């Protein structure tokens, strides 16, 4: 009868080490994907808010912004028109810019 069936302790430790390295890689990948998803969602939300500000301009007092976000409105006169630029600063240090022309 041969008692060499199965794995040795050394082979088992190597297999556990390789499995652990692969799992750490997957966890880091998942963390990166989750972060990128939240940042993309924040950018999309900021774009929506920027368009809402431009739609409601000049009455922008009722705009609801997430905490830690700020916005700035710049008005640039141009002939009989005016360019209104909206910049939104998110908590991920992103800067979203939108602009619209308003003519009389």
Give your account of this protein's structure.
The chain has 1 helix and 3 strands, in the order αβββ. 46% of the residues lie in helices and 26% in strands. With 104 residues, the protein is of the alpha+beta class. It has one domain. The chain has one helix at 9-56; strands at residues 70-78, 81-89, 95-103.
Q: What is shown here, in short?
A:
This protein has one domain (9-103). 46% of the residues lie in helices and 26% in strands.
Sum up the structure in keywords.
104 residues, alpha+beta, 3 strands, 46% helix, 26% strand, membrane, PpdC-like_C, Prepilin-type N-terminal cleavage/methylation domain protein, transmembrane, transmembrane helix
Strand content: 25-35%
Q: Secondary-structure element order, as H and E? A: HEEE
Distance between the termini: 98 Å
Number of distinct beta strands = 3
Q: Reading side by side through the largest sheet, how are the strands ordered?
A: 1-2-3
Domain count: the total is: 1
Can you give the helix content as a percent range?
A: 40-55%
Structural class: alpha+beta
What is the radius of gyration computed over CA atoms, rounded to a whole number of angstroms?
Answer: 27 Å
Summed over residues and divided by their number, the pLDDT gives a mean of 91
Estimate the global geometry from the Cα principal axes.
rod-shaped
